[in-house]
């Protein structure tokens, strides 16, 4: 059932990614609409002739009208998003342009009706309604067209960023450290006669690692990522013996959250290669995962040789920089990876937003 849920989430995610309009049901997008509408009202007020008092009066009235229109537009785009998405990008753009102008026309007529009800229409100049209808629609068409073009350009930029992120994932999937492969083959050769059962387990674990690194999926459940890390660590444990110890602290309810593929295994590999292997007595790798609000926090901690130790290896920061850049491209934010280092301890903390890949997978 997990694979079925993942495939369904994949198809929904692909459909959402193909649509260029943002989700106006989200609070941040709604706030952005309100701010842009108010900026438009301020610009229109500044363009009015007369003194500052007259402009402030116009701003008060115009802000009310513009906010009415903007909030109604956002409500329409929110409630009809699924329907717009079925029309495709081009059909949705034309339909949205027409629908939002109808909203503007309706509010213009509503404003005139309200002025008549309050007996204020007599103070208006002749032909005020016709002029307002034309002016408001022209302003609305211009703003809507510019906004649609902006959303489309942003959508194309996002697709390019995601394509670059996928290419980096493919590069990471294709890159397997030669020493790990050689060590695994040597382990298999040494166990082939003495312990056939362990040999079979190593082969299965190695196949699991290769299956994940060669797969085309760009996201997995955390449970799959953890199992991949366990497969890798079981292979290394046969080689390192008692030098390698692992502690797991995985909170319940987090294993079905979707995360980028190959997020955990490269960090665990770094912990072994730059930490455990450099210490004659080995050490403990701690892997923890928990839910923290709208994020999932994953921590990998390992001991390291001192800064002046001859066994200390370089290149760890370069590998982490590559992983951090890949995650930043996928999530579009810079606070997804933190590194903490003391003289004898190294810690990597991932803070990945939940729901960025279509929400959480569920099990039936």
In short:
With 364 residues, the protein is of the alpha+beta class.
Write structural notes for this entry.
With 364 residues, the chain is α+β, with helices and mostly antiparallel strands. 62% of the residues lie in helices and 13% in strands. It has 11 helices and 7 strands. The strands form 2 sheets. A 5-stranded mixed β-sheet has the order 2-4-5-7-6. The protein has a two-stranded antiparallel sheet with strand order 1-3. Helix 7 runs antiparallel to helix 8 (196-214), helix 8 (196-214) crosses helix 9 (222-240) and helix 9 (222-240) packs parallel to helix 10. The longest helix is centred in the middle third of the chain and has 47 residues, at 128-174. It starts with a helix and ends in an 11-residue tail after the last strand.
Shape: elongated
Main β sheet profile:
5 strands, mixed
Oligomer: single chain
List low-pLDDT spans: 1-15, 358-364
Give the strand order, joined by hyphens, for the main sheet: 2-4-5-7-6
The helix/strand order is HHHHHHHHEHEEHEEHEE
Helical stretch count?
Answer: 11
Got a strand count? 7
Helix content estimate: 55-70%
User: What structural class results from the helix and strand content?
Assistant: alpha+beta
What is the averaged pLDDT score? 80
Content of β-strand: 5-15%
* Rg of Cα set: 29 Å
**What is the terminal-to-terminal distance?**
6 Å
